[in-house]
Amino acid sequence: xxxxxxxxxxxxxxxxxxxxxxxxxxxxxxxxxxxxxxxxxxxxxxxxxxxxxxxxxxxxxxxxxxxxxxxxxxxxxxxxxxxxxxxxxxxxxxxxxxxxxxxxxxxxxxxxxxxxxxxxxxxxxxxxxxxxxxxxxxxxxxxxxxxxxxxxxxxxxxxxxxxxxxxxxxxxxxxxxxxxxxxxxxxxxxxxxxxxxxxxxxxxxxxxxxxxxxxxxxxxxxxxxxxxxxxxxxxxxxxxxxxxxxxxxxxxxxxxxxxxxxxxxxxxxxxxxxxxxxxxxxxxxxxxxxxxxxxxxxxxxxxxxxxxxxxxxxxxxxxxxxxxxxxxxxxxxxxxxxxxxxxxxxxxxxxxxxxxxxxxxxxxxxxxxxxxxxxxxxxxxxxxxxxxxxxxxxxxxxxxxxxxxxxxxxxxxxxxxxxxxxxxxxxxxxxxxxxxxxxxxxxxxxxxxxxxxxxxxxxx
Length: 460
Prior knowledge:
- By secondary structure, the chain is α+β, with helices and mostly antiparallel strands.
- Helix content is 35%, strand content 21%.
- α9 packs across α12 (326-332) and α13 (348-362) packs antiparallel against α14.
- It is globular.
């Protein structure tokens, strides 16, 4: 052990400074297996004071820091480089629920709490923390904040940015920003916490957060509906919003290729096949029967190709399981070029038509697997193969991405709706992000982290 290792161990304890390759293995490769690094070590602090001491030491020694939550990044944002000079700081020992104020609809937690732990803590006092992700059992609040996570209920509740009241952040020089306010209103200057939400750990290390809670719904009504086109899907979204307002919690689109993949690997999961399947959920207070009756009445006046309305919690869970299994089912089919894109919901049909035609012209027979959160315009738009045998898939990645992003920005969209930029998309961001916005972001980075020790090698 070097002197630096000894000083790091003195802060967190020898057992909480990982240096053995076997112990480090789960932390040095990203979730998709595209990036693998070689860190100096991984430190596991138990408190904000230990984080502060670690960052202060690293700043003095010129050691770069890679913050890491549950290591569920799909873009390599939490993976160290191969220099052996970057310290991973993992927060999995920081899982304290500090305070719940049910009357104020707020909860303050350590950044190492998993999303599921926060959901459960809120439910224990009859409240809802609405962020919902497939990785909620392992992803951590700090990571959710650093990528401005969205998920399945953005349509009603918003992203992490909208769900955050206050933050506690250790800055790159080791000073502590204590902005753990539980206020909804505060006009005392700039809301500086916003700088750190979506920054992917490049401006500071989030150690705590105060988050919004909501009334716990007592009624749900969930359906899987079939439509013949993307245009019909968006028409259904508009009609549902007009009828049910913010009781419409989820509106997901699942393409037919996606449905076929799910059925192939999990026979019997699909009750029908259609050009597009829509997973729709309403939620509300009051009696479940009243919401169900209202939804049934509305459905009776529509002209859906087919559909299933859940009649029990078991049936509701089955419909949700179908949606949650999509990524795993697709993974079984082999690799894919993944896109986490967003366009205005109204532009989804035009984007799908124009981008699909351009990809097919460039790669005849290309298979496009599209699904996602159509209520907020966020689609997971994945290319499963570009040539027979799929051998050339990643050779074609830049060409595929160029086509996809050209069409995304034609409709004033984004190449990263909820998964972030990380290492994967940094070179694309400089091409598509407004140059003035990029200059402002780089200026903030220079001001807060002039020696670039916080998660270097990303998009800043």
